[in-house]
Amino acid sequence: MADDAADTQTQRRRLGEWLPREETHLARYRCDLAAKARERADNSPRTRAVDELAALVQGDPVLRMDMTRAIAQAREAGYVLGYSSIDELMTIVDYLMTYAPPFSESGLIHCPLNAVLDWPMCMPSGYALFRDPALNAQLKHVLNCWCGFLSGPHSREHLNTSPPNGWFCAEADRRIALSQFVCDPRQRYWGFASWNDFFTRRFRAGERPVDEPDDDRVIVSACEAAPYNIQHDVKISDTFWIKSQPYSLQDMLTLHQPELTPRFAGGSVYQAFLSAFNYHRWHAPVSGVITHAYTVDGSYYSNADSEGEDPSGLNDSQGYITALAARAVIVISCDDPAVGQVACVFVGMADVSSCMIEALPGQHVRKGDELGFFQYGGSTCCLVFEPGVIGRFVVEPPFDDNGPPLRVNAAIANVTGTRDASR
């Protein structure tokens, strides 16, 4: 095995700490998960959504071929998956339908299904497999089923102070700083109704003040997220799938919204990624009236091809998924004409099954007002500006992906005021 391939067997660069970087830790996790799944499968029927996923894959010769080959290619490359067949994989997926992720001091695995599929989806056969619309539609049902469990009371088994798995233990509190969130240690489960209720926890009043709330020309961060990329002169259509890929507006905003893309052609994109430990609600980066608010069905485990070729490099799929992954788009027509319209694209990645929009078209929002939230799993967000609006951002590349996130409601840019108002 070549040196660079050998390196990926032990460590893989990750953004947001949704999965550990050490492959050996993930391999142990997958094997342990597989053992527990096999044990439970002997005594429990499969979840209907997983049965339907298995029937789809086994009943479609192309999907069956691609999934079988992707598993085989990952194993032949030397990766320990914990399974060797489609049926064994489905047994693990079914086990995850009633799985609530524990905290871990040594190697947090926040996205268990992503951990299970991590290498097959980066194999040659996996690229086509996880871009298949029918497969993704069924994966959405599976993830919604799991999301239903995570939204119920039985998902709270690790919402306690007991180390090493409890989310309220001393080490977890050091990472999360629970005192800044709305919760009550005197109550059972600290007042959280479910795992998803904990995941989408709210800041206490005053924890994230809005920078320059009365100045419409100061743009603030829509999420608690670390800067990933900035690009100017964005094209309506571009080759988003290549390494270090550009953004493609018609693919980000979809062809179903043809009036939007020309407005942003030649404009700027600011992208940031959320951490497993961060806040997962979205806030308005500007004040104005919402003109569009819609969700886009997309892929869940599709990676850019360069992820398999160079897993130790920068996570290229962060940009790639803005055109392919399930996402929510909210467009705000700003109170200040110099700002024009701002498109907020909230992208679900990995195990995210739901992007929940709370602010609707026709509604006026003030900078810092809540717009919606992610329901569980990895995520990234983009702010798209019209040309001539942003000359320079407060934060500029190169970015340190190990650095702290930029706080939600903190200033990210100032408007230059050179936008063509006739657009």
Describe it for me?
This is Phosphatidylserine decarboxylase. InterPro entries: PS_Dcarbxylase, PsiD-like. Pfam families: PS_Dcarbxylase, PSDC. This protein has 423 residues and is of the alpha+beta class. It folds into two domains: 3-154, no CATH class; 218-415, Glucose Permease (Domain IIA) (Distorted Sandwich). The protein contains 14 helices and 13 strands. It has helices at residues 3-10, 23-41, 48-59, 61-76, 86-96, 112-117, 124-129, 133-150, 170-176, 195-199, 249-253, 261-264, 305-309, 317-324, and strands at residues 218-220, 226-231, 268-273, 281-283, 288-296, 327-334, 341-348, 354-357, 364-365, 370-375, 379-385, 390-393, 411-415. The longest helix is centred in the N-terminal third of the chain and has 19 residues, at 23-41. It is globular, with a radius of gyration of 21 Å.
CATH class identity of the largest domain: Mainly Beta
Structural shape: globular
CATH architecture of the largest domain: Distorted Sandwich
Hey, roughly how much beta strand do the residues contain?
Answer: 15-25%
Helix content: 25-40%
What letter string, H or E per element, gives the SSE order?
HHHHHHHHHHEEHHEEEHHEEEEEEEE
Strands, total number: 13
Please report the number of helical segments. Answer: 14
Q: Could you say what the CATH topology of the largest domain is called?
A: Glucose Permease (Domain IIA)
Write out the strand line-up for the largest beta sheet, numbering strands in chain order: 2-3-11-7-6-5-9
Radius of gyration: 21 Å
Summed over residues and divided by their number, the pLDDT gives a mean of 87
| Total separate domains | 2
Characterize the biggest β-sheet.
Answer: 7 strands, antiparallel
Low-confidence stretches: 1-8, 306-315
Find the structural class using helix and strand composition. alpha+beta
- Distance between termini? 55 Å
